[in-house]
Every structure is written in structure tokens, then in C-alpha cells.
Amino acid sequence: MLGVNRFPRSRLFRWMALRHSSSKLFVGGLSYDTNEPVLKEVFGQHGEIIEAKVICDHKSGKSKGYGFVHFISKDSASKALAEMDGQVLDGRNIRIQYANMKEGCCNLNLERELSRQMTKGKDEGDEAKPRP
After folding, report:
1. CB under 8 Å to 50, separation ≥6 — which residues?
2. Distance between the two ends of the chain, CA-based, in angstroms?
3. CA-based angle 98:50:105, to the nearest 5?
4. Tens of pLDDT along 83-110?
5. Of 60, 77, 59, nearest in space to 68 by CA
6. Residue 21 burial (CB < 10 Å; 0-12/13-18/19+)?
7. For 38-47, what is each residue's pLDDT tens digit?
8. Alpha carbons 80 and 50: distance in angstroms, whole number
9. Starting from the edge strand earliest in sequence, which strands make up the sheet with 24-28, in order?
10. Is the distance from CB of 43 to CB of 69 less than 8 angstroms?
11. How far is CA 76 from the centre of its chain?
12. pLDDT grade, residue 69 (50/70/90)?
């Protein structure tokens, strides 16, 4: 597929690709008894949730004491962060912060590819147009 631009170079596309980066929260200090339905119920009071995930040990299946809650909007995530950080859940004070993006995360890779494509287009002097 040489010469085919797989990624539109518009700012709108880049914004849409990256906007979920601040709608995902890290939840630390969870009780080992806290499960995904509990997270979804508690955090669902602050907005619509895409996913609530408790991280478990792959061998034992037991909770590692942290998880992630991914909201549809960054406003909901921000509200949940402000209202839930330091609160007690299942007998434990939980810590909330925005989730960090991993180096191998698809959004980060997409951002790099978009930047490369945008730079390439400018260097070549061609118009940045999305491909159908």
C-alpha cells in the first residue's frame, strides 16, 4: 500500500483520536473484594461509563487492588475525580487520578503516525486531504 495515506490529517480527526486520553481514570487503593460491577455502579453516578476494569493477577485471579474507569466524556471523568478521590469504597480510601498512557498504547501510536503524516505532507508541499 505504498503511497496510500491511511490517516486523515485533519485536526478534527486528531482531536477525536486523542480525546479519550483524559476520560480514563486510574483507581488505586481498592479493596481486594471490590469488583467491576461495584466500580461501575459507584462511578456511574458521575456519568456514562464505557468500561470499568479491576486488574487481577492472571494466575490467582485475585484483585491487585487497582483498576480503571473509562468514561464517555472527559467532563464526567473530571467530575468523578473531584468527587471520588479520597472517598471510602468497601472500607478503603481510594485514590483517583487520570490514567497514564502506556508507550505501546494505540492512541499514542496513532498520534505519532498522524504527526509523521502531517509533517510528511508539509515537507512535500501537498495539501493535507483525507483519503476516502
Report:
1. 23, 70, 71, 72
2. 14
3. 55
4. 999 999 999 999 999 998 665 455 555 5
5. 77
6. middle
7. 999 999 999 9
8. 14
9. 49-56, 63-71, 24-28, 95-98
10. yes
11. 13
12. very high
Lookup result for grid cell 467491576: 36
Q: Which three cell numbers stand for residue 59?
A: 494466575
For cell 476494569, name the residue.
53
Could you tell me the three cell numbers for 66?
A: 487497582
Q: What is the dihedral of CA 13, 45, 51, 67, to 10 degrees?
A: 120
CA 20 to chain centre: 5
- pLDDT tens-digit map of 17-43: 454 458 999 999 999 999 999 999 999
Between strands 24-28 and 63-71, the pairing is antiparallel
Q: pLDDT averaged over the chain?
A: 78
